[in-house]
Specification:
Helix content: 10-25%
Structural class: alpha+beta
Order of helices and strands: EEHEEHEHEEEHHHEEEEEHHEEE
Length: 292
């Protein structure tokens, strides 16, 4: 997507949801999903899958979701950000047109009222801040940033400096906290804004939470990193290489898949390629994904 293209917008009742792309990364399937087996991988109900023809190469998308509802202009997650020093080469000192893409979707940084973070990982918090005259400053000057308390506690604990990706916390989370615009979401979750509820879904990380949107009787799920690719819908036992606790991640994934199938939720993923949007249906004893 270029800055001049009009992004796709989806409706959830009275809410509009627009994907704001940042980067897309090719990944060998067996690296992203160590249990990957191309002979049993069934990514979607029609068999389609972004990536190569054999499904051995997957694509990981990094993006944010812009939600407008009830006078609120909300970002769900905040990508990698530009100019950040990162150990991962794919994320190091990016220079993307993400802010232009946000503008193409009709929102300026000052229009954002809230930023909701599913968890504190490098590719979900980066656009919280931009360079200022004396260091990193909040990108969204009028926004409240809601983040999991558990993640904040992990990085501010005595051993927090030793945690992987502490640099992310220092340049993309702590400046927002110091600005007095952060709110900590308790581990049990709950409704944090009218229509937005945090659901505990640990496993990918200890602090991971998904976000349920309700608007005019319709529901959608921003599931964060509960899964990285649609193949995990049909194969929920497959965990990504990035999951901290595989058993807990599997439990969270099954719980959310059951919720999505039972209630017909629109699923806005954090890393699925293509549209990154789909639905989940029961198929026999398992589940299947369909792109929207």
């Amino acid at each position: 997507m270029t800055a001049s293209e009009t992004p796709e917008t989806y409706r959830v009742g009275g809410a509009s949801v627009t994907k704001i792309p940042e980067i897309a990364l090719p990944f060998p399937a067996s690296a992203l999903l160590p249990d990957y087996d191309p002979d049993v991988a069934t990514p979607t109900r029609d068999g389609s899958q972004p990536g190569d023809a054999r499904g051995r190469q997957l694509t990981v998308s990094v993006h944010a979701w812009l939600v407008r509802v009830g006078g609120l202009t909300v970002l769900v997650d905040a990508g990698v950000g530009n100019g950040k020093t990162r150990a991962a080469k794919a994320f190091d000192h990016l220079d993307t047109a993400w802010l232009d893409r946000l503008a193409a979707a009709g929102a300026r940084p000052e229009d954002i009222t809230h930023v909701l973070l599913t968890h504190l990982h490098t590719d979900h918090v980066g656009w919280n801040t931009v360079p200022g005259p004396h260091g990193w400053v909040p990108t969204f000057p009028n926004a409240r940033t809601l983040l999991p308390r558990r993640g904040y506690e992990l990085f501010t604990a005595p051993d927090g400096l030793a945690r992987p990706n502490h640099d992310m916390f220092a340049d993309s989370v702590q400046p927002v906290v110091e600005a007095g615009t952060a709110e900590l979401v308790p581990p049990e979750g709950g409704e944090a804004l009218p229509g937005f509820s945090f659901l505990p879904t640990p496993g990918h990380s200890p602090d991971h939470m998904s976000i349920l949107l309700r608007a005019d009787g319709r529901e959608a799920l921003f599931a964060g990193d509960v899964l990285h690719d649609p193949v995990q819908v049909a194969q929920p036992d497959w965990c990504s290489m990035f999951c901290a606790d595989h058993d807990e991640a599997r439990r969270s994934r099954l719980r959310v898949l059951e919720l999505a199938a039972e209630r017909g939720l629109t699923w806005f993923s954090s890393h699925c390629a293509g549209t990154s949007v789909g639905t989940v249906a029961r198929v026999g004893d398992g589940f299947a994904w369909s792109f929207l």
